[in-house]
Amino acid sequence: MRHLEEELQATRDDLQNTVERFESGNENLRISNEEVVTTNEELRSLNEELESSKEELQSLNEELSTANQELEVKVRELEIANSDLQNLLNSSAIATICLDRQFHIKWFTPATQSQFKFMPGDIGRPIQAFSMPWDGGGLLETARAVLDSKTVSLHEFEAESGQRYIRRVLPYMDEHHQISGVIVTYTDITDLRTATEAFDLTRKELAESREQHEKLRTLSAALAMAEERERRSLAQDLHDDLGQILAVVGLKTAEMRKLEMTEPVRLAMEDCSLAVEQANRKLRAMAFQLSPPILQDLGLAAALEWIADEMRHVYKLDVHTQDDGARKPLDPAVSTTLFRAVRELLINVAKHAKTATAKVHAEVQSTKASGSGGGDDTLVVTVTDEGSGFDPNVALPANGSGGFGLISVRERLNLLGGEVTIHSNPGDGTTVNLKVPLLAQKK
């Protein structure tokens, strides 16, 4: 019993020790679990920091990649600009030399090689080591003066070959906007000088041509006035001399018809009287056509009405005239030429246009600019028909009756300062505008 009790007590003690050890192990396990939890939290926090660092690193990497791409683009643009600049210098026909402050060669364009015989190895050599007899002389002195004054120097000279050049020396600025030397350029201006001389000659010839044209206009006006005086004199002679003779013949014939005579003689006398009367009417018409007094007495508008009446009676052409009623002070030579031009145009319409109607419109057009006091008025007379028309680029029809036709109408009015424009198409009628200057009205 004691032995069993002792063993039981020993077992109880062992069990108690085991329980205590178990509890101690549980406490240690609990502590270890807490340490693991703390470690996990630290690891999670560290992982979050790593994730944030990773994102920042990715963002930085993207920024670096974008910056690298932009840098590559800038480098490419710089290479293209450098290539373009080099190609520009290589293709430029202007000889250019860059010198430093000691007047040593920094660079030069290929165009200089034809004159200075430069080689790539000459970069760095002093410019005075080269013979430059054709550059106009005084390059070093000019370069020194440009460096001192910081201004541009221009010098024109002629080479032995006859070519003309402009030498331009200007300060050379570095990237810090500091003067680090000079730029010397040689520009060939031979063609420009030739063109300038040709232009001066052309301008002189144009001035002479204008002077001749003015003289021609003056002579044309004088010729028109002389022609008009001759026409007036001839019309006066026809009216006063031949007209009086025909009037006397008419009176004598009328007196003879009162005498007793045989029937054949009476019929012959009547025929003679009728012929004299027709000749008298024809004479008056010829005198009026040679120098219509209505043009000098009543003006252009009344003269155009007379032309319309003549076209209706002689050529069976119905002409409608329209006038704006404005005053039309014209030079006598211009008025007469315009009158005959309108008459010739209407005769052309009657003979060639294959139409029975035509229109004549006269109006004054003012060329004075708004708000200004200058400018001259012009008279525009438009002759229009709806006949067969023609192609003005092929041929201008003449009137076929000894008149001066469309070609001469244009020439005469141009010489008097006027203008003629023709608009016509086959089958679509014709419109002719006659534009002449009016005399300045006295204020």
Written description of the protein model:
- By secondary structure, the protein is of the alpha+beta class.
- The chain folds into four domains: 19-88; 92-188, 2-Layer Sandwich (Beta-Lactamase), CATH 3.30.450; 200-291; 295-443, Heat Shock Protein 90.
- It is built from nine helices and ten strands.
- It has helices at 2-91, 113-116, 139-149, 190-257, 263-290, 293-298, 300-314, 332-352, 405-415; strands at 95-100, 105-108, 153-158, 164-173, 179-188, 318-323, 357-366, 377-385, 419-424, 430-437.
- The strands form two sheets. A five-stranded antiparallel sheet has the order 2-1-5-4-3, sandwiched between helices. The chain has a five-stranded mixed sheet with strand order 6-7-8-10-9, covered by helices on one side.
- Helix 4 (190-257) runs antiparallel to helix 5, helix 4 crosses helix 8 (332-352) and helix 7 (300-314) packs parallel to helix 8.
- The longest helix has 90 residues, at 2-91.
- The protein is elongated.
- The termini are far apart.
- The relative contact order is 0.05.
